[in-house]
Amino acid sequence: MRPGPRNLITDVAGLKVGNASNAAIKTGATVLVGDAPFVAGVHVMGGAPGTRETDLLAPDKTVQEVDALVLSGGSAFGLDAASGVADALRAAGRGFAVGDQRVPIVPGAILFDLINGGDKDWADNPYKALGRAALDVAAEAFDLGSVGAGTGALTAEIKGGLGSASLVLDNGVTVGALVAVNPVGGVTGPDGQFWAGPWEFDGEFGGRGGVTGFDPGALPVTKLTLRTATTIAIVATDAALTQAQATRLAVAAHDGMARAIHPSHTPHDGDLVFGVATGAQALTDPAIDPMLLGHAAATCLARAIARGVYHASPAQGDLLPTWRARYGGD
């Protein structure tokens, strides 16, 4: 396996990502949209999730495909970002057909970034506009770090961010991950190496290797006092998967979150992964391919988490430094 040409989730053909940010509020929204509806599942392992339309993604429900997925800051307020995306998709004639009506299916998930140094004294919920703005700029190329849903994200000791990574399997199938990193826990060891270091390709997040010199029995410092939490992610593939298989892809990807964040899946985090399949490539070995896809999804998500933090940039009013500022990144 090797990273795809962009090393982004959009190496999965037919997918685009858009980001919108509000620097004053220190928040934003990120949209994943397909050229056509795509199969999606979801798995939640955090104790404090905030979601929209995720019940619809269970394999026994009527709708098997969605039009877009939204990751947003803003806690419960941020769920409104998906409304802006749904409005724009409806205006474009997209959505689930019900008689003469079109109902865009736009599940979403949020992270808590309400106490991160930004000005939250808004009169009107800003997230609907942020969601629509993110959809308007959706493209195959997009920035990482302090953008979109990762704009105001924090980790235990440094800024979080928006990350992405991809892998192309030996059988030609592509897997990618997109993540907004805002956990209670930490992503680095005491010397700035990323917990995801063993899965790094080509120095994509600093090339410092794995974490050394730590006490394996100690609980890492957490940012509970900042009241910010949750890592939300999407893993995608161009393989043809059922909704049940896409859900299993999301389950497997949580291993990558656990590799990259210590501690992860805490009672204070709403850790969640969406699994996406565009269906462009048939499985060549139904017994083995799902296992390989799950392994690739976990690897991509661990790398994407580190990349999001590695690319974070400083901004006025920040409560925590960036990785580069704290550890002398180039």
- Overall structural domain count: 1
**CATH hierarchy: architecture:** 4-Layer Sandwich
What is the rounded Rg?
A: 18 Å
CATH topology: L-amino peptidase D-ALA esterase/amidase
> How would you name the CATH homologous superfamily?
L-amino peptidase D-ALA esterase/amidase
Distance between the termini: 27 Å
Class by alpha and beta content: alpha+beta
Name the beta content range.
Answer: 15-25%
Characterize the main sheet.
9 strands, mixed
What is the average of the pLDDT values? 93
Low-confidence stretches: none
Question: Number of DSSP strands?
Answer: 11
Spatial shape: globular
- Kindly state the percentage of residues in helix: 10-25%
Task: Work out the helix count.
Answer: 5
CATH C-level: Alpha Beta
Order of helices and strands: EEEEHEEEHEEEHEHH
In short:
With 330 residues, the chain is an alpha+beta fold. Helix content is 20%, strand content 24%.
Question: What are its keywords?
Answer:
330 residues, nine-stranded mixed β-sheet, two-stranded antiparallel ribbon, 11 strands, 20% helix
Structural overview:
The protein is α+β, with helices and mostly antiparallel strands and 330 residues long. It has a single domain, classed as L-amino peptidase D-ALA esterase/amidase. Helices cover 20% and strands 24% of the residues. The chain has five helices and eleven strands. Strands 1, 2, 3, 4, 7, 8, 9, 10 and 11 form a nine-stranded mixed sheet that branches. It has a two-stranded antiparallel sheet with strand order 5-6. Helix 1 packs across helix 2 and helix 3 crosses helix 4. The longest helix has 22 residues.
